Every structure is written in structure tokens, then in C-alpha cells.
Amino acid sequence: MASLNPPVCDFGWKAPDFKLSGVDGRDWSLSQVKGVNGTLVMFICNHCPYVQAIRERLVADVRALRELGINTVAISSNDAEAYPDDSFEKMAEVAREFHFPFPYLFDDSQQVAKAYGAVCTPDFFGFNAHLELQYRGRFDNQGRVMTPVDNPTRDLYSAMKLVAETGRGPAEQTPSIGCSIKWREVA
């Protein structure tokens, strides 16, 4: 399983719109998930060990960000035929098990991942209130290690808190690391 790093933040890049089905039975668009002080769009999946390692901490941080006016949406774009653990049905199971406080959407066509330039899971896109990109970095310094590191950071939370307070993300950002998005083979 190859690990990838996404490119650095392209400050000011505008969030592409989308309309995708959620595991809650609703269709969601960007305007429906937009937060008053910012929006976090994250590409995750069920089977990736990097995502699995952060799920509980991610849910806690997303709840804290919501208190700051930051709304969050998660999108799974993996090829569910080749990776059945990432199927819509399995997504619903994971969302229930971990009590996801955000819509978990399925990008079956993979067009949304391509529009965002997502490359790995997790891949975080933190936008300000005007849907201008301000953060494209890692969740924390723990990676996929399940036991806490000596000096844990909360890179994503801290960056999005700054976005909520100032509209700008940190100038210095450490890229996320994760498994490659599982693209459907083109015939």
C-alpha cells in the first residue's frame, strides 16, 4: 500500500461545488454543508489504516470545530468494486459505529475527487467562510500510529480554528500522508 502526500495549500483556490448522496439517505451539496466561519472537506475511506488510526480523534476535533462555526463533510471516492470495504453500505456502518457528526458522502463517479485534486485518504481541504482554500495539511503528527506520540499536535484543528478566527490558514503547513485514492480503471 503506497503512501502519498498531497500538494501544498493553494491559498484562495475556490471550493468546487458538488451534489452527492450521503449515508443518511440525503443528497448534499457544498452550499448545504458550508459553515458560517469555514468548511472542512475531507476525503476519507473505510479501509485505509491512516484514516482508521485517526477516526476517534477526528470525530472529537470535528465536534469542537463545529462549536467554532466550521462545518465538515467527508467524501469517499474509492472504487468500491475493487475495495468492497469502501462500499456505500459499509460507509453507513462505519458512520454509525463512530457516530460521525458530519455527512459522509459517496463519490461513485470520482468526479468530485478529481475536481478537488484529492490524492490520498485522508486528504483535508480547509476553506474559509468565502470557500477559499486555507489549509491542505495533515491531521496531526501521529500518522497511522495507534499509540499517542510524546508531543501530539492538532494541526488540522489548530489550522481550522485560525481560519474560523481570522479567515486565513497558517503559512506553514505539513502535508497530509495517506493511502492513494483507489481510482477506477479506465477501459
UniProtKB/TrEMBL annotation:
Gene3D superfamilies: Glutaredoxin. Residues 9-165 form the Thioredoxin domain. SUPFAM superfamilies: Thioredoxin-like. InterPro entries: AhpC/TSA, PRX-like1, Thioredoxin-like_sf, Thioredoxin_domain. Pfam families: AhpC-TSA (PF00578). This is Thioredoxin family protein.
